[in-house]
Amino acid sequence: xxxxxxxxxxxxxxxSSGKPRRDKRGGGVMSSTGxxxxxxxxxxxxxxxxxxxxxxxLSTDAEITGExxxxxxxxxxxxxxxxxxxxxxxxxxxxxxxxxVVATLHTVGVLLVCSLAGYALxxxxxxxxxxxxxxxxxxxxxxxxVTFVPSFVLVSSLGWVDTYRGLIIPGLxxxxxxxxxxxxxxGFPKELEEAARVDGLGYWGAYWRIVVPNSLNFFAAMATITxxxxxxxFLWPLVIGQDPGSWTVQVAxxxxxxxxxxxxxxxxxxxxxxxxxxxxVFLFLQRWLVQGIAQTGIKG
Length: 300
Description:
Order of helices and strands: HHHHHHHHHHHHHHH
Structural class: mainly alpha
Number of strands: 0
Radius of gyration: 28 Å
Number of helices: 15
C-alpha cells in the first residue's frame, strides 16, 4: 500500500512573520526617485553660496548692495582680480603662501605626532596607558580660551611672534586626532605586526614599515581634516601674525571689513581664491576621507 503525502502549499509551509509583504519593485522605484530628488535639492542648496561668491566677486559694491537684484552682473568686473593682488595694504598673495606653508607643515606634524601617540597607546603594553589615554581625552574638555593666553605668553617669550614656528608648533598635538588614531590602530590586524616582529622589527619598524603603508586611506582622511582646520584657523594666526608679511589668508580677509569701511567686492573675490585650495584638496581626497572615517571604529 502506497502512502501519498499531501501537497503542502508554499504559503502554508513558510512561517508567517506577521508583516505584510511589500512590492520590492514598486517600493524600490519610489525610494530611488525620492532619493534623487532629495539629493538634487541638497546639491542645489549646497551650490548657492558658491554662486553668490562668484557673482559678488565680479560685481561692484553698488550692485551687491543695490535693491535691483540681478542673477549676474551686467558689466563683469574682471579688474577686481588685479585689484586684489595689487592692493598694498593687504598682501593677499603673501597671505595665500603663508596659509599654504602653515597648513601643510601643520598637517604633516599633527599626523606624525598623533599617529605615534595613538599607536603607542594602542599597542605598547604599559600599565599606565589607560590613564594617559584618559588624560588625553580630558584635554578635549578644556576650552581653548583657557590655554590661549598661556600659549601666547610662552610663544612670545621664545621670540616666535611673526614666525612660522609660532604659528605651527603650538598646534602640533590634537587630542581628538590622537583619539581617532588610537581607535583605528586598535582594529588594525595584529598578525601583520607579529610577522614583522618575527623578522626582527621593533615597534618603530612595525609602525613605519607595516602599519603606515597599510593605513594610507586613514592617513589621507586625517590629513584632509587637519589641512582644512589649519587653513581656516583665524584667532591664533591673528594674534601671532602681527606683521602684514606673516598674515594668513583668514587674517587678510578680515582686513577688508573694518569699523569704518566694508569693501564687499574685495571680500568676495578674496573668499573665492581662498576656498580654491580647499576644494581641490577635498575633491582629490574625498574618497579616502569617507573610507578613513569609516575605519575609526566610531559608531553613531
